[in-house]
């Protein structure tokens, strides 16, 4: 019968062994598998870099999830791990370790071996000897890391990793998420040249780019053929003869993203007057989420969007900040009808919508039975329309988050919120909710005061009402 070693005893054994690093290294060949993670954690915490290097060479698991222990190890610890990998890469025998994972994940691995659950295993004998000493060379080693490119230059640890990877051919540097905040495009290209771009699943650009910069980035984006989520923020469109060339580069590469499911574009100035051809031509696969915010689109753009085949399965739609005040209600109505069967989150904030627009979409809205979030705050709606809106959405059982503007009757002729009128509107809306007889919470937000810019948020349910300031 195999007995289970108490976690506290394993921890004490690991600490005792590390008192003499040479002894600890010599013992690795005969160390029980269950002691490896605990010893590694103690060696990392105690900065026993010599032991870390030796443990990487003898690691008895296929994966070393270093990122689950620390977001990025200190420089000497990372160098010790990389030196250990170099020893493996130089071997002519097979080794067990296949993946070094530097992402902030895989915490369950370490918690399992630190006491939450300790696997039963023999306490004597060589560890995974057969798998460590199989004949034949090993294939490429894979290193997983999430790239967050924030500054003009890489932080020291990431820069060291990139330099190390650049010199190793039998290595796959894989990244599932690339986030860009402020690095020059030339530096970005140098980093991406080392990455297996087919591994990338998410790309986020949170930095103001010129259209020419997007054009230079486009070839790399096109090679990220498995990307499922793309976020672009603040792409400026200069008035130049090369504008069409850069747009062409981007759209041609977007065609290659056949697994794209979530697309978010904030302030995409280059889309203006282009949406009518951009979406149908560049988005061939069905999207789950689409966000186009804070840019100027035409009514024909919106009409084209409503007919785009790729939106037929949308779960999330955000068109906040698009100026729809002068548009006919018809394109918005058709758009909502197209997505009614699948839509879960619908956000139409600060679009200049009036009663006429909302009246047009009420029938389609009442058929959005998967809807969970609905926000039209920042628009101009009357109390009568608000009542109709609440009644039309009463049958949507999944709806849990509703954000509305304070009714127009709550304001003075100068556009300033009137406390008495606002209180009356609250009471009327609460009465409607009670009349509907279903547990429900709504949020009301006023427009910013034209003098001080403050807002008020109103949270109500059929049984409790509170008013609070939101600055």
Kindly list the characteristics that best describe this protein:
four-stranded parallel beta sheet, single chain, 18 strands, 471 residues, Leucine-rich repeat, LRR (right-handed beta-alpha superhelix), alpha/beta, 14-stranded mixed beta sheet, repeat, disordered C terminus
Task: Please describe what this structure looks like.
Keywords: Leucine-rich repeat, Repeat. Belongs to the PRAME family. This is PRAME family member 12-like. InterPro entries: LRR_dom_sf, LRRC14/PRAME, PRAME. With 471 residues, this protein is an alpha/beta fold. It contains 17 helices and 18 strands. It has helices at residues 7-17, 21-27, 35-45, 49-58, 75-90, 107-116, 129-132, 156-166, 185-192, 211-223, 243-254, 275-282, 299-307, 330-339, 355-365, 383-392, 419-436; strands at residues 63-64, 99-101, 141-144, 147-149, 171-174, 177-180, 202-205, 209-210, 229-236, 262-268, 289-293, 316-318, 345-347, 373-375, 401-405, 442-445, 455-460, 465-470. Strands 4, 6, 7, 8, 9, 10, 11, 12, 13, 14, 15, 16, 17 and 18 form a 14-stranded mixed beta sheet that branches. A 4-stranded parallel beta sheet has the order 1-2-3-5, with no helix packed on it. Helix 13 (299-307) links the parallel strand 11 (289-293) and strand 12 (316-318). Helix 2 packs parallel to helix 4 and helix 15 packs parallel to helix 16. Mean pLDDT is 82; it is low at 115-137 and 459-471.
Helical content (DSSP H or I, runs of 4+):
25-40%
N-end to C-end Cα span = 65 Å
Relevant CATH superfamily of the domain at 275-470: Ribonuclease Inhibitor
CATH architecture descriptor name of the domain at 275-470: Alpha-Beta Horseshoe
Rg over CA atoms, rounded to whole Å, is 29 Å
Unreliable residue stretches: 115-137, 459-471
Average pLDDT level: 82
Protein name: PRAME family member 12-like
InterPro entries: LRR_dom_sf, LRRC14/PRAME, PRAME
Family: Belongs to the PRAME family.
Organism: Lynx canadensis (Canada lynx)
């Amino acid at each position: 019968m195999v007995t289970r070693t108490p976690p506290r005893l394993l921890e004490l054994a690991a600490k005792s062994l590390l008192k003499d690093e040479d002894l600890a290294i010599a013992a690795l060949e005969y160390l029980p598998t269950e002691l490896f993670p605990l010893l590694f954690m103690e060696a990392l915490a105690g900065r026993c870099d010599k032991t870390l290097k030796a443990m990487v060479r003898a690691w008895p698991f296929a994966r070393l999830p270093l990122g689950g222990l620390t977001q990025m190890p200190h420089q000497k610890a990372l160098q010790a791990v990389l030196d250990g990998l170099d020893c493996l890469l130089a071997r002519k025998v097979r080794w067990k370790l296949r993946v070094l994972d530097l992402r902030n994940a895989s915490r369950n691995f370490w918690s399992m071996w630190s006491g939450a659950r300790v696997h039963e295993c023999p306490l004597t004998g060589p560890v995974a000897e057969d798998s460590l000493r199989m004949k034949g060379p090993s294939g490429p080693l894979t290193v997983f890391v999430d790239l967050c490119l924030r500054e003009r230059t890489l932080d020291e640890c990431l820069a060291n990793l990139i330099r190390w990877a650049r010199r190793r051919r039998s290595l796959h540097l894989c990244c599932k998420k690339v986030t860009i905040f402020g690095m020059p495009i030339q530096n970005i290209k140098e980093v991406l040249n080392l990455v297996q771009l087919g591994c990338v699943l998410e790309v986020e650009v949170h930095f103001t780019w010129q259209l020419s910069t997007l054009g230079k980035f486009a070839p790399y984006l096109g090679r990220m053929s498995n990307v499922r989520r793309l976020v672009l923020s603040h792409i400026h469109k200069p008035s130049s003869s090369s504008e069409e060339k850069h747009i062409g580069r981007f759209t041609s590469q977007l065609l290659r993203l056949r697994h794209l499911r979530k697309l978010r574009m904030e302030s995409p100035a280059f889309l203006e007057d282009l949406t009518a051809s951009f979406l149908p031509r560049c988005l061939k696969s069905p999207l789950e989420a689409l966000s186009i915010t804070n840019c100027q689109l035409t009514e024909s753009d919106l009409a084209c969007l409503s007919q785009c085949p790729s939106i037929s399965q949308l779960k999330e739609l955000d068109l906040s900040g698009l100026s729809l005040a002068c548009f006919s209600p018809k394109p918005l109505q058709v758009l909502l009808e197209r997505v009614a069967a699948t839509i879960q989150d619908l956000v139409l904030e600060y679009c200049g919508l009036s009663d006429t627009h909302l009246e047009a979409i009420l029938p389609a809205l009442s058929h959005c039975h998967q809807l969970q979030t609905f926000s039209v705050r920042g628009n101009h709606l009357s109390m009568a329309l608000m009542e109709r809106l609440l009644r039309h959405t009463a049958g949507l059982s999944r709806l849990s988050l509703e954000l509305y503007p304070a009714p127009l009757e709550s304001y003075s002729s100068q556009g300033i919120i009137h406390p008495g009128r606002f209180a009356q509107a609250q009471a009327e809306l609460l009465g409607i909710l009670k009349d509907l007889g279903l547990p429900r919470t709504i949020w009301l937000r006023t427009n910013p005061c034209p003098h001080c810019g403050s807002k008020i948020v109103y949270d109500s349910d059929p049984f409790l009402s509170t008013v609070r300031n939101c600055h």
